[in-house]
Amino acid sequence: MSEKPVIVNFLGLNFNLTNCLGGTLMAIAVFALVYYLSRRITLKPNKKQNLLEYLIEFTNNIVKDNVEDEDAQKHLSLYAFTLFLFIFMMNQLGLFLEFTVNEHVLVKSPTADPLITMTMAMMTLLLSFNFGVRKFGFRGYMSNYARPVGFLLPINLIEEFTNFLTLSLRLYGNIYAGEVLLTLIGGRLAKSGGLWTIIASAPLTLIWQGFSVFIGSIQAYVFVTLSMVYIGNKVTQE
Amino acid sequence: MQFMFAALKLGIGDMIYYLVIFAILLLAVKHFAWGPVTDMMEKRRKKITDDIEQAESNRKKAEILANQREAELKDSKQEATQILSTAKSNAEKTKQSIINDADSEAAAIRKKANADAVQAKKDALNEARDQVADLSVAIAEKVIAKSLSAEDQKDLVDQFIKGLND
């Protein structure tokens, strides 16, 4: 991979333009999608409304299955819905669009960068702290780490860290591997032996893109589900 | 060390950017799509619940009405049977009274006829007796040419008729 990110320094912080551009584009895409689907909301749903309600029901079910607390459910359903659509879109972005200018890649899947998936996982982590503290109070929340027995305290603390890491790195690994293989097929293999390899790589790319769409959807689902599982664990007393 | 710091800096910029983007996206989605749609879903849920409840109560009402109607139907059937039986017994009574009336009337007529006949026979006999008396007087006058008193004559005829009757 010879792609170099475009990094801009602003207010003493470095912004990776590749990530920023991709994320912004996909945020706009998600908003455009739900905005388009949510026009003319009626009691008797039309086709667009049906699709949107199906998506909402889908993420709501993820939340309901994993979070038992009713109050937390209410707050989490919107988060799950937006998170699912956002991650799904970001996963798919790199599959059909990779925009490179002078060896500098401008648009690719932002979730193929561990920083972005860690940001997402960090949001989930902070939310789980928030819900846990809100439910049990600070003292009660802290004492939950020593449950069900005291000597599990270090393991529970480590689990917190590993949950965060696995959540983010699973998503990153899947999407990154997909992108790498896609680049390898499209970039290296196709250009390796002239016309013959270009023709041969076309169906391979097609198959791998299809598979990556599948992986991207599954990973978005897994990410949201696991987020809800972690938060659900925090709001239920063991 | 410098490399680590650079990496950290690189991360924080993107992280903040993504957090901001996600927050904005969350608010926008909530305001434009999530809110209205979930409201509408809730409304629909309420409406469906109401409709089901209403249907249930309507069904109960209909059941009560049907039962009532059935009871009424049974009642009216009973009533009809009663009316029919009353009418039958009434007719029977009327028939009996008519027959009785006719019988008694016929008996009276027969009695009267008998009496009339007896009277007529009596009258006829009397008349015949008188005529026979007159006739025999006339015959006797002519035959015996001797004046016989009417009294004696009558006694004679009476004896004669008594002989006839016996």
Automatic annotation (TrEMBL), chain A:
Q: Where found in the cell?
A: Cell membrane; Membrane
Indicate whether Repeat appears among the record's keywords.
no
Membrane disposition: Multi-pass membrane protein
Q: Where are the transmembrane segments?
A: 15-38, 76-95, 115-133, 171-190, 210-231
Q: Which UniProt keywords apply?
A: ATP synthesis, Cell membrane, CF(0), Hydrogen ion transport, Ion transport, Membrane, Transmembrane, Transmembrane helix, Transport
Q: Which superkingdom, per the lineage?
A: Bacteria
Give one Pfam hit by family name. Answer: ATP-synt_A
What InterPro entries has UniProt attached to this entry?
ATP_syn_F0_a_bact/chloroplast (IPR045082), ATP_synth_F0_asu (IPR000568), ATP_synth_F0_asu_AS (IPR023011), F0_ATP_A_sf (IPR035908)
User: According to its UniProt record, which protein family does this protein belong to?
Assistant: Belongs to the ATPase A chain family.
* Function of the molecule: Key component of the proton channel; it plays a direct role in the translocation of protons across the membrane.
Query: Under what name is this protein listed?
Result: ATP synthase subunit a
Which source organism? Answer: Lactobacillus colini
Underlying gene? atpB
UniProtKB/TrEMBL annotation, chain B:
Q: Where in the cell is it found?
A: Cell membrane; Endomembrane system
Output the InterPro entries linked to this UniProt entry: ATP_synth_b/b'su_bac/chlpt (IPR002146), ATP_synth_F0_bsu_bac (IPR005864), ATP_synthase_B_chain (IPR050059)
Pfam families for this protein = ATP-synt_B
**Residue stretches spanning the membrane:** 15-37
Among its keywords, does the record have Coiled coil? Answer: yes
Q: Which domain of life is it from?
A: Bacteria
UniProt topology in membrane: Single-pass membrane protein
| Keywords tagged on the record | ATP synthesis, Cell membrane, CF(0), Coiled coil, Hydrogen ion transport, Ion transport, Membrane, Transmembrane, Transmembrane helix, Transport
| Coiled-coil residue windows | 38-79
User: Which family is it part of?
Assistant: Belongs to the ATPase B chain family.
Cited HAMAP family: ATP_synth_b_bprime
What this chain does, per the entry, is described as: Component of the F(0) channel, it forms part of the peripheral stalk, linking F(1) to F(0). F(1)F(0) ATP synthase produces ATP from ADP in the presence of a proton or sodium gradient. F-type ATPases consist of two structural domains, F(1) containing the extramembraneous catalytic core and F(0) containing the membrane proton channel, linked together by a central stalk and a peripheral stalk. During catalysis, ATP synthesis in the catalytic domain of F(1) is coupled via a rotary mechanism of the central stalk subunits to proton translocation.
Oligomeric state and interaction partners are given as:
F-type ATPases have 2 components, F(1) - the catalytic core - and F(0) - the membrane proton channel. F(1) has five subunits: alpha(3), beta(3), gamma(1), delta(1), epsilon(1). F(0) has three main subunits: a(1), b(2) and c(10-14). The alpha and beta chains form an alternating ring which encloses part of the gamma chain. F(1) is attached to F(0) by a central stalk formed by the gamma and epsilon chains, while a peripheral stalk is formed by the delta and b chains.
Report what the protein is called: ATP synthase subunit b
Look up and give the organism this protein is from.
Answer: Lactobacillus colini
Gene from which the chain derives: atpF
